[in-house]
Amino acid sequence: xxxxxxxxxxxxALLALALAGFVTILTEALPAGLLPQIGTGLGVSxxxxxxxxxxxxxxxxxxxxxxxTITQGLRRRPLLLAAIVGFxxxxxxxxxxTSYTLTMVARFLAGVAAGLLWALLAGYASRMVPEHxxxxxxxxxMVGTPLALSLGxxxxxxxxxxxxxxxxxxxxxxLALMLIVWVRLKVPDFAGQATGKRLSLxxxxxxxxxxxxxxxxxxxxxxxxILYTYIAPFLSAAKMAERTDLVLLVFGITAxxxxxxxxxxxxxxLHALTLASIALFALAxxxxxxxxDVLEAVYSAVAAWGxxxxxxxxxxxxxxxxxxxxxxxxxxxxxxxxxxxxxxGGGIVGGVLLEQLGVSSFSPALLILxxxxxxxxxxxxxxxxxxxxxxxx
Length: 393
Prior knowledge:
By secondary structure, the chain is mainly α.
């Protein structure tokens, strides 16, 4: 893009991508805070209403890799717009539907749109800027995620309780329509991959650095979701059940600081920051295991956990984009798949641990996963398996 200089970021375009991420996360997570109202509105139980979140994740999981593989040759902006249009349609249907089945179909469509958008986001941001600003550009594009989790979901839940859950989804549709205009006006278009330069899924998977990053994504996000999904029973065991909202607020605020720190430093210290984030999360898990019944220790550990998690997606996406080069979109689709597998796995593994061993088993399980991730990142840096990951570190 001609207007981009070595020291200037195309903020209007990058913030449009950030808003796209915000819409994606808010569309995914909003039902979780409004389950009673949605269940009543659709005439189903809260458990069935909760499947609106599950079907969304399934849509993302199934769609990301196939869509990115078959659309490698298409121009990028029409693909991005198609994903946002998908959100507008899905949220509009959700707004007016009185049928549980139709709403589930709409949520699946939204999940498909999310799989496409997440696979595009990091590669799109990195193509707007020169090499030494790629990490910062991705960090800005990803800021919508912690904003949606820390501010958007609580605000949406409050609004839903005041004016009804359907109004919330109607507002999401309007936001998507506004975003379509913004993207059309401010986000540059890029060509897809020429036929002779496209790599197969297998070729991308075997590029240096790809497999270590995907393993770390699985381990780190699985550890996160074991704890995040079952934070309520964990706090209940520590006699802090009534403080769950405050604990999650602390997590959300420190996550915002985490992504800010990563955004400032990522282009110089990508490898070191990745190690530091994993180590900080491991330290938080250790504190929760040793002093999970001490109020101050829990708040401190959750703050450290949020700080570590806030910029994690940016770190992983930047590492993958640098390792994959022109095949970044296909590689990002693998990350989307790994991330959603880890989300599902966190629910399953955490549930088994909770039922069989209790919340005291969370800390050892998290430490096993995070130590494994640390070893892989360290080895990748030492042996050059992901030389481009360490290039800035």
